[in-house]
């Protein structure tokens, strides 16, 4: 089953949210897209982008699927719900970034 790509207007909205969230952060998030996924990486001290989480577009800007990146297995795990920051996850992009900040602090 093929998944449709995220529409350009939704990507624009995602970029605006990420930029607004990054406004006062030393290590900003960067978004990359593949199919119906948004991968949220964060730049580290050396400027290298490291994986944090993956969001799945469901067709609703306020109901994204969430998967945290697990360095132990080097994959995104949508079934992992035992990590610092999980209490932030509510289906929004902002909540995913907050969860990522707690799971992987600066």
Write up this protein:
There is one protein chain. With 106 residues, the chain is of the alpha+beta class. Helix content is 25%, strand content 28%. It is built from two helices and five strands, in the order αβββββα. The chain has a five-stranded antiparallel β-sheet, covered by helices on one side. A hairpin with a 4-residue loop joins strand 4 and strand 5. The protein starts with 7 loop residues before the first helix and ends with a helix. The mean pLDDT is 94.
Helix content bin: 10-25%
Q: How much is the average pLDDT?
A: 94
Gyration radius, rounded: 13 Å
End-to-end separation in angstroms reads 38 Å
Structural class: alpha+beta
Query: Using DSSP, what is the number of strands?
Result: 5
Count of helices?
2
Widest β-sheet, arrangement of strands: 1-2-3-4-5
How would you characterize the largest beta sheet? 5 strands, antiparallel
What fraction strand? 25-35%
- Low-confidence parts, pLDDT < 50 over ≥5 residues? none
Order of helices and strands: HEEEEEH
- Principal-axis shape equals globular
